[in-house]
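Exercise: predict the structure of this protein bound to ISJ.
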Amino acid sequence: MTQATDPELLRLRSSIDNLDAALVHLLAERFKVTQRVGELKATKGLPPADPDREKRQIERLRALAVEAQLDPEFAEKFLTFIVTEVVRHHERIAKDHA
Ligand SMILES: C=C(O[C@@H]1C=C(C(=O)O)C=C[C@H]1O)C(=O)O
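Solution:
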Protein backbone atom coordinates (compact mmCIF):
# COMPACT_ATOMS: atom_id res chain seq x y z
CA MET A 1 0.00 0.00 0.00
CA THR A 2 1.34 3.44 -0.90
CA GLN A 3 1.43 6.25 1.62
CA ALA A 4 -1.35 8.12 -0.20
CA THR A 5 -3.90 5.31 0.16
CA ASP A 6 -3.33 4.07 3.71
CA PRO A 7 -6.75 4.79 5.36
CA GLU A 8 -5.33 5.47 8.83
CA LEU A 9 -2.77 7.89 7.38
CA LEU A 10 -5.49 9.61 5.32
CA ARG A 11 -7.68 10.04 8.41
CA LEU A 12 -4.82 11.46 10.45
CA ARG A 13 -3.80 13.81 7.64
CA SER A 14 -7.37 15.01 7.27
CA SER A 15 -7.34 15.90 10.96
CA ILE A 16 -3.98 17.67 10.55
CA ASP A 17 -5.44 19.70 7.67
CA ASN A 18 -8.37 20.80 9.86
CA LEU A 19 -6.01 21.76 12.67
CA ASP A 20 -3.75 23.70 10.28
CA ALA A 21 -6.81 25.60 9.00
CA ALA A 22 -7.82 26.39 12.60
CA LEU A 23 -4.30 27.66 13.33
CA VAL A 24 -4.43 29.98 10.30
CA HIS A 25 -7.81 31.35 11.37
CA LEU A 26 -6.66 31.85 14.95
CA LEU A 27 -3.52 33.63 13.77
CA ALA A 28 -5.53 35.84 11.41
CA GLU A 29 -7.82 36.87 14.29
CA ARG A 30 -4.82 37.52 16.56
CA PHE A 31 -3.20 39.76 13.92
CA LYS A 32 -6.48 41.67 13.46
CA VAL A 33 -6.49 42.44 17.19
CA THR A 34 -2.78 43.33 17.32
CA GLN A 35 -3.30 45.64 14.33
CA ARG A 36 -5.84 47.56 16.44
CA VAL A 37 -3.42 47.62 19.38
CA GLY A 38 -0.72 49.01 17.04
CA GLU A 39 -3.05 51.78 15.86
CA LEU A 40 -4.07 52.59 19.44
CA LYS A 41 -0.43 52.79 20.54
CA ALA A 42 0.50 55.01 17.57
CA THR A 43 -2.38 57.36 18.36
CA LYS A 44 -1.39 57.59 22.02
CA GLY A 45 2.36 57.78 21.41
CA LEU A 46 3.04 54.49 23.21
CA PRO A 47 6.09 52.36 22.24
CA PRO A 48 5.53 49.51 19.72
CA ALA A 49 6.91 46.82 22.07
CA ASP A 50 6.16 46.06 25.73
CA PRO A 51 8.92 43.72 26.99
CA ASP A 52 7.33 43.30 30.48
CA ARG A 53 4.05 42.15 28.96
CA GLU A 54 5.99 39.78 26.66
CA LYS A 55 7.82 38.27 29.66
CA ARG A 56 4.50 37.60 31.40
CA GLN A 57 3.03 36.06 28.24
CA ILE A 58 6.04 33.76 27.84
CA GLU A 59 5.79 32.58 31.45
CA ARG A 60 2.05 31.96 31.08
CA LEU A 61 2.41 30.14 27.77
CA ARG A 62 5.26 27.97 29.04
CA ALA A 63 3.11 26.88 32.01
CA LEU A 64 0.15 26.16 29.71
CA ALA A 65 2.44 24.17 27.41
CA VAL A 66 3.69 21.99 30.29
CA GLU A 67 0.09 21.33 31.35
CA ALA A 68 -0.80 20.40 27.76
CA GLN A 69 2.31 18.19 27.35
CA LEU A 70 3.77 20.49 24.73
CA ASP A 71 7.47 21.34 24.80
CA PRO A 72 7.66 24.73 26.64
CA GLU A 73 10.79 25.67 24.66
CA PHE A 74 8.81 25.23 21.46
CA ALA A 75 5.86 27.23 22.87
CA GLU A 76 8.21 30.09 23.78
CA LYS A 77 9.89 30.06 20.35
CA PHE A 78 6.49 30.05 18.64
CA LEU A 79 5.18 33.00 20.69
CA THR A 80 8.42 34.95 20.23
CA PHE A 81 8.23 34.38 16.46
CA ILE A 82 4.70 35.81 16.35
CA VAL A 83 5.35 38.71 18.73
CA THR A 84 8.48 39.73 16.77
CA GLU A 85 6.31 40.03 13.66
CA VAL A 86 3.64 41.98 15.58
CA VAL A 87 6.23 44.45 16.91
CA ARG A 88 7.55 44.92 13.36
CA HIS A 89 3.98 45.78 12.28
CA HIS A 90 3.64 48.20 15.21
CA GLU A 91 6.88 49.93 14.26
CA ARG A 92 5.58 50.34 10.72
CA ILE A 93 2.22 51.71 11.94
CA ALA A 94 4.05 54.19 14.25
CA LYS A 95 6.27 55.33 11.36
CA ASP A 96 3.28 55.83 9.06
CA HIS A 97 1.50 57.74 11.82
CA ALA A 98 4.44 60.12 12.54
C1 LIG B 1 0.04 43.53 21.29
C2 LIG B 1 0.90 44.28 21.98
O1 LIG B 1 2.11 44.74 21.43
C3 LIG B 1 3.29 43.94 21.39
C4 LIG B 1 2.95 42.60 20.91
C5 LIG B 1 2.54 41.63 21.80
C6 LIG B 1 1.81 40.42 21.32
O2 LIG B 1 1.81 40.15 20.11
O3 LIG B 1 1.20 39.73 22.17
C7 LIG B 1 2.80 41.81 23.18
C8 LIG B 1 3.44 42.89 23.65
C9 LIG B 1 3.96 43.97 22.77
O4 LIG B 1 5.36 43.87 22.65
C10 LIG B 1 0.62 44.71 23.35
O5 LIG B 1 1.34 45.58 23.86
O6 LIG B 1 -0.35 44.20 23.95
